[in-house]
Amino acid sequence: MKQRIKLGLVCLARETFDFKAAAEIYARIRNELATLEAVDWEVIIDLVISVEDAQNAARRLAETSLDALVCVSGTFHLGHLVLEIRKRCKVPILLWGLDELPYNGGKIRLNSVCGVNLDASNLYKAGVDDYRAIVGGKIDGDWVDAIRVIAALRDSHVGIAGYRAHGFFNLSVDDPTLYNATGVILDHYELSDIWDSPAEPAAVAAREAQVRKTFDVSGLKGEQVAKVSELSARLDGFLARNKLDALAIRCWPEFARDYGISPCAAMSILQSEGRLIACEGDLEGALSMLVHKAIGGETPYLFDFSQVDLERNFALFWHCGVAPCNLWDGCSVRSLDTYFAGGKGVTADFVLKSGELSIARIDTARGKRRLFLQRAHAVPMDKDLKGTYVKAVFDRPVKEVLDLIVQKGVAHHASMVYGDYVKPLEIAAGLLGWEIIQ
Q1: For the CA atoms of the chain, what is the radius of gyration?
Q2: Are 352 and 388 within 8 A, CB to CB?
Q3: Among the four residues 38, 66, 300, 325, which has the most C-beta atoms within 10 Å?
C-alpha cells in the first residue's frame, strides 16, 4: 500500500485566451485525478485568473496541510499567480502544461506551455527549486510517488535500538542534520527494551507454529526454535506499542551473547509481514527501505554487495540471513541455521526469487545527502551458501557499478525491491536537493 498524501489542485488562466476550453479540460482532469490511489485532494474548482483569485486560493490551500501542489496551466496567465500561491504554500509544485488545441481562426488558443515557462522561470529566479514541469494530458505519476517519498520521511516514526554495528563508522548519522534533510526525528531505544518487551504465551505459540511451518528447523534445537518464536512476538509487540514505521537494530554482538540468539530469523518473519527492520544499526538503510515501501515496493531487503564476478558480469546480494521469508524462490530449502555467532545465529537460509530489481541507498558523506540508485535483474542460482541471497545482473557492466560505489564511498548496504521503482526516487532526490549517484 502506497503512502497516503494530500495534494492541492488549481488551474491558472487568462481571459484573452480560450479559458472556456481550459475549464472543460480542467473538469476532465479533476475527474481523472479523483481515481488516483491513496491521494486526497484539495481542489480550487474555479479558474484562477486574477491576483485576487490567487490570493484567495492561497489562503484556502494554506489551511489544509498539503504535501504538494499541482498547478495546471489552463492557458497563459499572469506571472503573479503561482508566486502568490507559493507565498503561503511552501510545498513542492508540479507545473502542468496542456497540449495545444487545434488553432481557431489562426489564433493560438491556450498558450499553456508558455505559461509553464513563465512560472518555472519566476520560481527558479526566486530561488525556488522544488518544482517540476510536465506537458501532456496525464499527471506525472512518478512525481506523485516522489511526493509520497518526501511525506513518508517526514511523517514516519523511526527508531534505532542500540547503536550501529561495531566498526561500521560509515553507517553513522547526525540526528539534527537528518532532521533538517528529511524531517525524521530519531528515537533511541536500548536492546533490552526489545528483550524485555512483554509477549503473551498465545502469541509466542502462534509464532512457533509459524516458524515450524515456514522453515525447515531440523538443524535447530527445540530451545532455539522457542527463542526465535519468543523474539518474534517480543519484537512485533515492541514495534506495535511504539508505533514504529521503521527500526534499525544493532544485531551483533550483544544479541547472540546476551539474549541467546541473533535476531535474523525473527526479522525475516516480521519483514515478510510488512515490518521495516534494518540490521547492524543502519538507520539510513532503514530509511531506504521506508522510501521503497512508500511508493509501493513490497518487503524491501537490505543486502550487502558481497561478491562481484567481473568475468561473468554478476553480483551477489547477500546478508547473513535476514531477508523477508516471502521473497523465497520456491525451489531452495528454506531453513534456519546456527552457523553464525558461534552457533547462536539462528539465521534464515534461502535463495531469493528471480525478477526485476530496483536498488536504493540513502547515504550521507562530506556534508551531502545522496541517493544511490540502480536497476538490476535477479536470476536463478543454486543454494550454495548460508544466509539469504540472490544473484543479480545489472543493466550495465557490474564493474561500472562497483567502481561507482567505491569511488563515491557509498555504504555497503542497500535496499532492493522487486519491480521498477527508480524514477520516483530520482524525482524525490531532485526536489530535496540531494545528489543522485547512478
Answers
A1: 25
A2: yes
A3: 300
Which of 338-349 are b and which e, b meaning 16 or more Cβ less than 10 Å from the residue's Cβ? bbbbeebbbbbb
| Alpha helices per DSSP H over 283-394 | 283-294
Strands 5-12 and 68-73: parallel
Model pLDDT, residue 339: 83
What pLDDT is recorded for position 354?
98
Nearest-5° angle of CA 231, CA 234, CA 238? 135
Q: Which domains does the chain have, with CATH numbers?
A: 5-139 (3.40.50.10940), 153-437 (3.40.275.10)
pLDDT tens digits along 195-242: 999 999 999 999 999 999 999 999 999 999 999 999 999 999 999 999
Task: Give the sign of the dihedral formed by CA 196, CA 201, CA 203, CA 209.
Answer: positive
The per-residue b/e assignment along 114-153, b for 16 or more CB within 10 angstroms, e otherwise, is bbbbbbbebbeeeebeebbbeeeeebbebbbbbbbbbbbb
Whole-model pTM over 0.70: yes
Give the distance from CA 436 to its chain's centroid: 15
Beta strands in 115-204 (DSSP E): 131-135, 158-161, 186-189
- Percent helix, strand and coil across the chain, each rounded to 5? 40, 25, 35
